[in-house]
Amino acid sequence: MPTRSPVSIEWECLANGVRENTFAARLALRNEGEAPIAAGWQLYFNTCRKVLADTVSPAFLIEHVNGDLFRLTLRERAPWQAGEEFDIRYEARFWAISITDAPLGFYLVTGEGEAIDLGDPHIVPFTRAAQRARHSEDRVPTNDAARRFDDNAGLRLLPIEEVGRITPQPLASRFTDASCRIGSDSPLLHEAALAGEAAFLRTLLAGLAPGGAGVRITLETGPVDVGQGVPEEAYRLDIALDQIRLRGASAHGVFNGLQTLRQLIEADGSVPLGGRSSTHRALATAA
């Protein structure tokens, strides 16, 4: 059974635009334990909004530690009594219009040095206009599920003819309607230097059913003609009925070619006949 957090935390944006480029917030803390928390405790949290130290409630101090890490303490060392609640007000830079702007990742460090993870606070929903507008001149509506749904209404799934079968698109590719079938039992030949790439391919093949023993797969390095020099990531992939040959200008090119082959393999292990070659993916030639 999960243990109860010794401290409950609630955070709320009170209003944006209280001063130029600032917002006001409230942090409510309560000692939920049955015993006091000894004097010298410190509360740490992360926030992307810089707290303005001179605006914090007088009894408390919020200091910037580094990055987005802040520390909250009592100005006068005193035990935190069981059931005692603290209502802390402060201002921070810019605005807070969603939960991503709230402070997160709280943890308590006791006076004895013990660190206790308190998790994230309960964040009061942003419902009022003063919470949802960045400043008085803000005309950009808050992004929510309803707005995203409306924005996405005009989207459509692009047909394969428009996007191609492989991403990123190769320099050239050609395929036929025929296919070969590879499987977990397809023989694999490779250069010794391509052992890592071969292991990756074997992992892909292991997810396929057997039945591809008649299609040999060869991985090799060598010249790759892409008509514009031979960058090391270039490769050529040729797919025939009885063999698949992948040549890369380097091991990097072979790995890129494997990513292309991976996209071409159907669930039943079928691969369209053809080839491809690219500075990033490959040249496809029908076989």
Structure, described:
By secondary structure, this protein is mainly β. 14% of the residues lie in helices and 36% in strands. It has helices at 129-132, 145-151, 160-163, 195-206, 251-264; strands at 7-19, 22-31, 42-46, 60-66, 69-74, 85-93, 104-109, 115-119, 122-123, 172-181, 188-190, 216-221, 235-239, 243-248, 270-278, 282-283. It is elongated, with a radius of gyration of 30 Å. The termini are far apart. The model is unreliable at 279-287 (pLDDT under 50).
Tell me briefly what this model is.
The protein is mainly beta. Helix content is 14%, strand content 36%.
Topology at a glance:
Layout: E1 7-19, E2 22-31, E3 42-46, E4 60-66, E5 69-74, E6 85-93, E7 104-109, E8 115-119, E9 122-123, H1 129-132, H2 145-151, H3 160-163, E10 172-181, E11 188-190, H4 195-206, E12 216-221, E13 235-239, E14 243-248, H5 251-264, E15 270-278, E16 282-283
User: Per CATH, what is the topology of the largest domain?
Assistant: Immunoglobulin-like
Low-confidence stretches: 279-287
CATH architecture call of the largest domain = Sandwich
Give the number of domains. 2
For the secondary structure, the number of strands is 16
Q: Average pLDDT, to the nearest integer?
A: 90
Written as H for each helix and E for each strand, in order along the chain, the element string is EEEEEEEEEHHHEEHEEEHEE
- Major sheet size, sense and barrel closure: 7 strands, mixed
